[in-house]
Amino acid sequence: MVASGGRFQFDLSNGKYTITSPSNTEKVFDLPPEHDHEAIRILTHKVEQFVLDQGGTIGQKNGARKKLTDNGYKITR
Asked: What is the pLDDT of residues 3-35, one digit of tens each?
């Protein structure tokens, strides 16, 4: 587990979502099509879990999710 504090880096490009933790642990996720809401839901849960597993705060978890939604990867009901 990472020591508390520090910033995560979130990058969406070339069909990939790369998250780098404060300790430089990097995880790359493949982005699903924007219309595949079930795949987006699964991706969102994986992204949030990675951030929490790396010692991220609730705010950092929400920031990771916001990066997805701001780029068209939204979970709809």
From this structure: 456 899 999 999 999 999 999 999 999 999 999
0.85 surpassed by pTM: yes
Domain membership flag for residue 20: no
Q: How many domains does the chain have?
A: 1
Residue 18: how many CA atoms within 13 Å on its side-chain side?
9
Whether 16 maps to a domain, the answer reads: no
The span from the CA of 38 to the CA of 44, in Å, is: 10
DSSP state of 77: -
Give the residue carrying structure tokens 């839901």: 41
